[in-house]
Amino acid sequence: MADSAAGRDRDDASALVAERIPFLRRLSTKLLILTILFVMIAEVLIFPPSVANFRLQWLEQRLDTAAAISLVLLRSDNGPLEEAAQEDVLRAIGAIAVAVRDEGESRLLLVSQMPPEVDEHVDLEDIGPVVAITRAFDTLFFGGNRVLRVFGHVNESDKAFELIIRDTELRAAMLTYAVNIALLSLLISVITAGLVFFTILQIMVRPIRRMRHSMQGFADRPDDPGRIMQPQPRRDELGFAERGLASMQSQLQRQLGEQKHLADLGLAVSKINHDMRNILASAQLMSDRLRNVSDPAVQAFAPKLVRTLDRAVSYSEGVLSYGRAQEAPPTRRLVRLQQLVEEVGDLLGIEPDGPIEFINAVDPAFEIDADADQLFRILNNLCRNAIQAMAADASDAVVSRVTVAAERQGTVCRVTVTDTGPGLPEKARLNLFTAFRGSARSGGIGLGLAISQELARAHGGSIELVESVGGHTEFAISIPDQPARLEQRTPQQANG
Fold it and tell me: Beta strands 356-360 and 367-370: pairing type?
């Protein structure tokens, strides 16, 4: 057995491996890719203002350097620099010319090969974000051979400085900055996605995998208690989902066990059904001979015995009806309820001088629209349950009484079965009409009330527990009258 169990475990493990989800289709992989994509999208949205700001800062740095040199030259008493010196200074700051404007007058301090025209004028003190972004991308994609005139005040100086410069170095710096931003964004995306991936893997993906494996294992062998999900002590949504799955699996396993019990019961009864019918048929033949006996006592109980045997044969033939999809539809007729209750009392086996008393409190004129045999089964189940409940502690000092009464409430007949027994236990009340779970006594299987409820519902009615306390338990059977069909009405009835 140990080898077979180990073999089943290996088969289950191999089945799980065979059903393993490919890497690219896993939730964790999709989450990793989506995280990288979303971070890259965020970086792309941040890139335009970032590169525009880089361009302005680069130009401001060049203008600051040119302003510092210009202030030194303005305060120098040596006159203008020589041409070679100007070339060196302009080459150092990457400019073509440097000028200063003071009190409305403009003065050219440094110059080298002045270009015939300027392609773009950049006022660092008056440039909006949209214009800055537009010009930054224009330089990035189409620049490299343009001449820029950059001007503005530096710090708190009252002088305005101007700088003529080519955008070759600016574009190269911007391309380098863009590549660095892209690489940095990719690195940040990978790190962020990795952290998110491992976090989600621990928090969500692995619990989901455990639930999936539990569902697969339970589907393979639902009768194995070891296949029920063992929930983690978590208080989040997945914790509730695990506990819900475990509860559902436990309920399903219990229901499957009850169905198997019902199937085994049906199989066992079907085996004895044939022989039981033969025995009852023989009893019917012997009971028919009793009708020819002239003894008055025999003639008094012979019809009841015949009816009892007829019902027993009918029950034997339909003993598996509860296991079918539904009971046979009722054949409804007007029934004198008092006589039917008397027949139920005759079959309960109550001794006339015994401690248990059976009272038929139904009015002799009371009629009910129902199937006589099915209503007999309902009353027989309820009364027999009451007798069995009181038989455990029946004595002359304890009042043990079963009372059947009836009343009409409009178009509904309400039949009550009341006893003075100990009352139903809590477990029986919670599962009152559930097969195999609603038994109120030890050894019972709990089918009687389930069958009775099914028969009552077939009549369009119901059975309810009105009250159950120590010394008083009352069941009520409600059966409505059968509605008249319009096509069955006579012309006189239809006309009023």
Answer: unpaired
Residue 483's φ and ψ, nearest 5 degrees, are -65, 145
Instruction: Report the phi/psi class of residue 209: left, alpha or beta, with left for phi > 0 and alpha for psi in -120 to 50.
Output: alpha
- Same domain (yes/no): 43, 16: no
How many C-alpha atoms does 494 have within 13 Å on its Cβ side? 7
Specify the number of domains making up the chain: 3
362 burial via Cβ count (<10 Å: 0-12, 13-18, 19+): buried
Q: Is residue 389 part of a domain?
A: yes
- Residue 320 three-state SS: coil
Name the residue with tokens 């101007």: 162
SS (H, E, C) 248-305: HHHHHHHHHHHHHHHHHHHHHHHHHHHHHHHHHHHHHHHHHHHCCCCCHHHHHHHHHH
Q: Which residues of 214-230 are buried (b: 16+ CB within 10 A; e: fewer)?
A: beebbeeeeeeeebbbe
476 located within any domain: yes
**pLDDT (tens digit per residue) in 229-266:** 888 887 777 778 888 888 888 888 888 887 777 777 66
Write the single-letter amino acid at 133.
I
Q: Are residues 142 and 97 in the same domain?
A: yes
Please identify, among 250, 268, 286, the residue that sits at the C-terminal boundary of a domain.
268
Q: And the tokens for 328?
A: 């046979």
For 56-68, how does the pLDDT look when each residue is reduced to its tens digit (9 = 90+)? 999 999 888 888 8
220 with 16: CB under 8 angstroms?
no
CB 222 within 8 A of CB 253: yes
Record the pTM. Answer: 0.44
pLDDT digits (tens, 9 = 90+) for 146-204: 999 998 888 877 888 888 888 889 999 999 998 998 888 888 878 887 888 788 778 77
| CA distance between the termini of the chain | 79
User: In this structure, are residues 27 and 117 in contact, taking their beta carbons and an 8 Å threshold?
Assistant: no
Query: Under a CB-based contact definition with an 8 Å cutoff, are residues 382 and 433 in contact?
Result: no
* Cα three-residue angle 492-495-496, rounded to 5 degrees: 90
CA distance 466 to 456: 16
C-alpha distances out from residue 459 to 237, 270, 329, 413, 453, Å: 45, 27, 8, 11, 10
Where does the pLDDT of residue 492 fall: very low under 50, low under 70, confident under 90, or very high at 90 and above?
low
Domain, as residue range, for 255: 2-22+205-268
Helix (H/G/I), strand (E/B), else coil: 207? helix
